[in-house]
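wait is this the right file?? whatever heres the structure
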């Protein structure tokens, strides 16, 4: 964990932040009026936004459960962690593999302020938090290597992250750099915004985020598949999050019907 000045002194409460808006969608308390204002604007455009946020968390849990319990993956690199929301990734991974090693990465000071919640894992396992920018994969890999052995399989988790990185800012190269560093047998878990299901609502939502100073990119199924170049997709491929391996759900109550405007997929590196 890095950062020498108190995180609270570096938190900008004058502009909305995606992690805090997401926290507000999930009913969390680690957000500010400016985040709630943007969240309410989004809901006025797309009333299902909170459901999409919940579906995103559920997808992460199901994918992690699959990798830990069925594939025995013992190392996890979660970039764009966001504000802790239980159960966190390490809790699910270490439930299936008690000695799992998990590295969380985010560059938001508010996540740093709550990072302690991410560091309580099993006695056998390891959890660590790095404050770093997702747009600097080389630094992330260098620092994560102090905890993870990149000569062995790693699950790379990019949950609801890449739609904040535009193509012209090197979105695909960023993912490619990270995947290239992974050993055979590693996995990529990724979810991202799409306008394939609700084009008008998503377009207006993207505009609302832009008005708040936040870049948001909606990608088609084929464009999302570009992040998995060179990987073998795990069934059922790239689908709306609610349709990805629902049989892996644990303690989840029904949460509406129909797709949500986020694709999700898991790919393995052979």
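ok assuming it is, sequence goes like this
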């Amino acid at each position: 964990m890095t950062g020498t000045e108190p995180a609270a002194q570096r938190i900008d409460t004058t502009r909305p932040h995606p992690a805090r808006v997401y926290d507000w969608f999930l009913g969390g308390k680690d957000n500010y009026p400016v985040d709630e204002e943007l969240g309410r604007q989004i809901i006025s455009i797309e009333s299902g936004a909170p459901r999409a946020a919940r579906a995103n968390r559920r997808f992460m849990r199901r994918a992690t459960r699959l990798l830990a319990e069925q594939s025995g993956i013992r190392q996890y690199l979660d970039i764009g962690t966001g504000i802790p929301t239980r159960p966190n990734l390490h809790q699910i991974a270490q439930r299936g593999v008690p000695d799992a090693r998990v590295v969380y990465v985010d560059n938001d000071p508010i996540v740093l302020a709550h990072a302690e919640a991410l560091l309580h894992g099993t006695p056998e396992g390891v959890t660590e938090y790095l404050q770093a920018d997702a747009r600097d994969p080389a630094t992330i890999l260098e620092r994560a290597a102090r905890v993870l052995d990149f000569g062995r399989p790693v699950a790379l988790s990019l949950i609801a992250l890449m739609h904040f990185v535009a193509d012209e800012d090197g979105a695909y190269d960023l993912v490619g750099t990270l995947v290239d560093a992974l050993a055979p047998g590693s996995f990529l878990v990724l979810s991202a915004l799409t306008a394939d299901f609700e084009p008008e609502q998503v377009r207006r939502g993207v505009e609302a985020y832009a008005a708040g100073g936040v870049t948001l990119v909606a990608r088609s199924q084929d464009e999302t598949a570009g992040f998995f170049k060179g990987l073998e997709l795990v069934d059922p491929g790239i689908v709306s999050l609610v349709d990805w391996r629902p049989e892996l759900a644990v303690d989840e109550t029904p949460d509406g019907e129909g797709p949500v405007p986020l694709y999700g997929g898991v790919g393995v590196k052979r």
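The chain has a mean pLDDT of 92. so i think its the right one actually
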